[in-house]
Amino acid sequence: MALLSIRDLVVEFPTRRGVVTAAKDVSIDVRPGEILGLVGESGAGKSTIGNAIIDLLEPPGRVAGGEVLFKGQDLRKLDDDAMRKVRGREIGMIFQDPQTSLNPLLTIGQQLIESIRNALGVSERDAQARAIELLEAVGIDEAEARMAAYPHQFSGGMRQRVVIALALCGDPDLVIADEPTTALDVSIQKQILDLIRRLCRERQLGVILVTHDIGVIAEVADRVAVMYRGNIVETGPTSQVLGAPTHAYTQSLIAAVPRADVRLERFASVDYIEGGAKPFHRIDVRTHWLGGALQREGTNEDALGVEDLHLSFVLQRSLLPSRRRMLKAVDGVSFTIRPGETFGLVGESGSGKSTVARIIAGLYRPDAGDIALLGRPVTGNRRDPEERAVRERLQMIFQDPYSSLNARMRVLDIVAEPIRFYRLTESEAETRQVVQDLLDHVGLGAEAALRYPHEFSGGQRQRISIARALASRPRILICDEPTSALDVSIQAQILNLLKDLQEELQLTMLFISHDLPVIRQMCDRVAVMRRGKIVELAETEHLFANPEHPYSQELLRLMPRMDLLQASRDATPAVGTA
Amino acid sequence: MNVRARLHATFVDNDIAYSFWRSPTAITAGAITLFFALAALFAPWIAPFNPFDPAQISLWDGKLPPAWAEGGQAKYLLGTDNQGRDMLSTILYGGRLSLLVGLAAVCLGMVLGVMLGVISGYVGGWVDTVIMRIADVQLTIPGILLAILINGIGRNLLPLELRQEFAVYVVILAIGLTDWPQFARVTRGATLVEGQREYVQAARVIGLPGWLIMLRHILPNVLRPVLVLATIGLALAIIAEATLSFLGQGIPPTTPSLGTLIRVGNEFLFSGLWWITFFPAIALVILVFAVNLLGDWMRDALNPKLR
Amino acid sequence: MLSFIARRFVQALIVMAVVSAVSFSLFNFVGDPVNNMVGQEATREDRLRIRESLGLDDPILVQYARFVGNALQGEFGLSLRTKRPVDELILERLPATLELVFVSALIALGLGITFGVYTGIKRNSWLSQTVLSASLVGVSLPTFIIGIALIYIFAVNLRILPSSGRSGTIDIGLWQTSLLSADGWRAILLPAITLSLFQATMILRLVRSEMLEVMRTDFIKFARARGLPERAVNFVHALKNTLIPVITIIGLNIGQLIAFSIITETVFQWPGTGLLFINAVDFADVPVMAAYLVFVALIFVTVNLIVDILYAVIDPRIRLGGT
Known about the structure:
A: alpha/beta, 6-stranded mixed beta sheet, B: mainly alpha
């Protein structure tokens, strides 16, 4: 019998522009000892389901219909008091961000004991014993000693373990985990997922795992429900849904997941998702203003070279040198990038890969080391006209499409800023024309020029960012995790766009990502970074086939297994290429 | 977009306007504030008398109660003060002065604070340290005390014969100089947040000089919290001016502000001439209340977390 | 933690140095000290002699050092108005101000925190809405208007409380207290309420908004999702996290109370240091102004230092270091 069985659940959010239905006629079942993956892209309504089950919807959200049957009882019929007894004791919840899920002012022991005593009504001593037991169960060493520690004394992964222990305090039968690994690095992600699976099996827990990440689903879920715009479009065993998807949306979604096993020319385009690119009004770059820089340069020199870069950040200031703590963010990094090449920097958070990019872009000044752009050394002196001329040839695309555009400026002014600043055109009329051509070229359409950023979706904003970066006619483009904030289907479109642009404009790219499959699809050569150092630098195909450094091997091993997906890809031909 | 659509978008079809038109308190507060602003602007035309014109004042008409009370005269709606000046007229002129001083002081504090705050937050380093330490030290001393002090020093620096004439400017300076650290702190905080955002980084990669980035990119994006602070600051500045004047440190009785009127009237309170204090006081409270209400609504409306 | 407090202590010293410099510069800004001492008819020779005897020809830094040295011993010279030693004047009036501030602080904190927490938890109850509207009126009422209104109601019309002055004081050693007699309490009641009301509403609103802020955090949501009772969520998790900003508010509030005591003391003719100061400003009595400033700054700095220590006690992130 199903532990939890949701029937025709409807969740609504009344807003200024009318009622938004966040979940529509959703029906799912969870059995004991089973992990149900609830997967969907942002805005699909997947988190809403979790919150609706335990009646903790953010106001003004409300459940408008359906049943939530838990062990045969409809939770919607319970009053507040009875519902509170269900929370923690029957259904546990794990949230995304372990940084903010714990009360910073109480020791984890206090928080655990409080929750255990509240849920089970046992004595302080029994609660203490059980708390230690739980900490051990979630894999925290020296549990007894760690009871007295405060949350800020734990690392992110350890905190998430504590959060899981807290969720298990009341011995629940069902656990809802809302993106439990999204804020964590790949290596930690793997450990947490293993932990969740082990607990699920040992304790016969029912688990609902809410995630946007197909990789996570493939890794741990027994069954999957795919959500699209508030609807469940497909449900079934993981191997079946991922291996042989029947719904067009699921097929598109899976096709868009970057492949780690083989390099493709282009990503399969995802037709199902709206709000994507319009058909390109391509301009001919050879005759257009945009291609104007192509002829002028074209040497055989390295496009970009860095030699022995160093940069340290101060973690703790102190008058006493012995108490000062520094972080060596970049510690002796050297590499060169050939013209027209895409060079990848890969590593986990804190590896220093973004810092390297920012140093090259001139956002940080290195403590030591040399940088050469297009064969000329640059020192960071913005007053030097020659250096400015070289800098003009380097542009950058950032990670977060929501913060990388000035919300108070029209798209026209955003994209035109470099053109106007460097006076790259003869007249304002020409500037406008160029901006419109650029917007056309990146697939937004010229009419976007007069609108403001907030009118666009994440993927569209990233296109605006790309147009802005192109507006100074760069030779070198730094892409700092350009798609990691985007849904996987949008990611495929943006990466395709970058590939196209690189080819026709013969751009040199420095591509930074934590995502190995993306790196494999995009880069010619890769450097693997760890703790500020490059541990391995190799041709991409070589690295994926024969990683030499132990850390590279470890990273490749930790990549979510996507074998399941391969079946579907080989079975259904690519959904079409645009 | 044509002009009409633009106006529509600015005043009707956006989240803030939406919130405004749906909140009866906000509309009431806005209306009262507008009413005071208009009354202040047009005081010389709508006031029944000119309280500064000796020809229109007659001591015989002094200390008259409001028109509806026993002994009141119809032409003096709210009665007269000890010198025979029409209360309604002095309040209109006084409110004009109070509002003007408050606005000027807030503007001074805001311009100074926002400028220093943006620079402090964007440039960082020792510039930041120096500016913020000054602000910290100043914030250790409560505003009103500082205003009294600056005002006292300012008056003493002026030659005796100019003190009355320049009193208004000294008060504005005193309150404005007291205000700036608040603005600087808020602006700096917002600038630090915005400075880390990627659109600023993008502008730096383009190669824009620092002043242009501060002006074009950061300033427009930090103005929201500043606007809220300025509204609440206006209420506080009006109170501060009234307090200074009440203490006899502010606007002189020859051209009274609301605070001065209350100070003068206070002397007659024990003899039962309540209206000389009451009406200016109530006008002051309503004005400040309306501005506070507006600021309160604005803070909620502009706080994305509350929406 | 020690280094944190040491850093704050150094900051406090810097503040005191700056404030004393400002006080010192008052002597140079506001009027000519020689004129203040001798009047218009003194001869040129007299003036020069006095200048020299006062050390006004020494380099400015030497003069400042002398000022600080004297200040450390409580020496601020003679009041220009009363010709009495300034430290005596201030010490004599200090109890009146401190008691007023103390009673007001109790009222303001009691009312402010209680209702702040209440309105933060019960966001939508009618009492919260009423209290909140009332508090907005509260922040719109200038202290002196509250004072005048209370005098008019309780002293002029009802005649149940005195309108001004301090009476019924009892001496305990050097300290004159109002808090030990009914008369003393009757006299202090109106000024204390006047002084506290504006601050109480300020505190209420700040505590409420901090409470709401904490209520929105993930760990509160997580605590709810664990089925903890509302009482535990509100008072164990939310309130404790609200305490940190609230302590800051209390620190600032005590400073504000001392500043606003100037106004209250003027309205009620309460014989405290505030009244002394405002009279000194009227007469450009520089030594009294300077001494008052230093003395007030000293209180603020001390309060702030205590606040910082409390911070460290409550917040393990400061106490234990690291992030």
